[in-house]
Design goal:
This protein is about 35% helix and about 20% strand. It has about 230 residues and is α/β, with parallel strands linked by helices. The model has no long low-confidence stretch (mean pLDDT about 90).
């Protein structure tokens, strides 16, 4: 793929301790082509908004939600601002080191994929939170059954895709069920999806992790619903 620009989306909710570092590390990362960074402050109340006001780099676009609407809603807002050929979703919490993006996009640049999922279970990852592990495995198993695929990590935050892959896809989910809605719709579209190992330094709840076991229910519902409807 002859890509001309990468658009990196960062949904951010109460990430004052990491947001500046994530943006700086992405700015410094060498992708070999132009990049833009779209940060959506999703109604943060911890000072994240004040930090973003200090960001002046020309390649960074900042949008704000007045209240917290959720990850899916933040991604929808960001998509209105993109101008790149390749889109990367980068979480704001440094669970995923930003520098690995430049290697993850290789299958798209080589013309071998339309969508790339990072997989925490194929790469280096922090070993903890067994109930998150089993919950993710349940959701991933259901996705594989419903969509005839072999993913290992459907709930991973690292999703990379071409702009063309989004054509005809409308994202309706507001919160973490974005992950499974996106999965359902790209497989229904029969796009070329590959997985790549990633480095993952997961956080605990005391460190700011936000997703909980309750988020498994809307995720499962999205997988089932979008198997049969748009």
């Amino acid at each position: 793929m002859a890509a001309h620009k990468i658009s990196i989306i960062i949904p951010a909710y109460n990430e004052k301790n990491t947001i500046r570092a994530v943006i700086k590390r992405l700015i410094n990362a060498d992708f070999g082509i132009d990049k833009e960074i779209i940060v959506v402050n999703d109604g943060s109340t911890d000072g994240t908004q004040d930090i973003l006001k200090e960001i002046t780099e020309k390649e960074v676009i900042v949008a704000h939600h007045k209240v917290n609407l959720g990850k899916g809603a933040a991604i929808r807002t960001a998509l209105k601002h993109i101008s790149g050929d390749i889109i990367i979703i980068q979480d704001a919490d440094l669970e995923y080191p930003p520098e690995q993006c430049k290697d993850l996009i290789r299958p798209i640049l080589d013309g071998q994929a339309d969508v790339i999922y990072g997989s925490r279970f194929l790469g280096i990852h922090r070993v903890f939170m067994v109930w998150h592990y089993f919950g993710n495995k349940l959701v991933t198993f259901l996705a594989n059954i419903l969509y005839n695929t072999t993913l290992t990590d459907v709930e991973v935050g690292y999703k990379i895709f071409t702009r063309q892959a989004l054509e005809g896809i409308i994202i309706r989910s507001n919160r973490f069920d974005f992950e499974t809605e996106f999965t359902a719709k790209i497989f229904k579209k029969r796009l070329r999806v590959v997985e790549a190992p990633i480095i993952y330094y997961g956080r605990g709840y005391s460190e700011g992790k936000k997703i909980t076991w309750k988020d498994a229910f809307p995720a499962i519902w999205a997988l089932i619903k979008y198997r049969f409807v748009d």
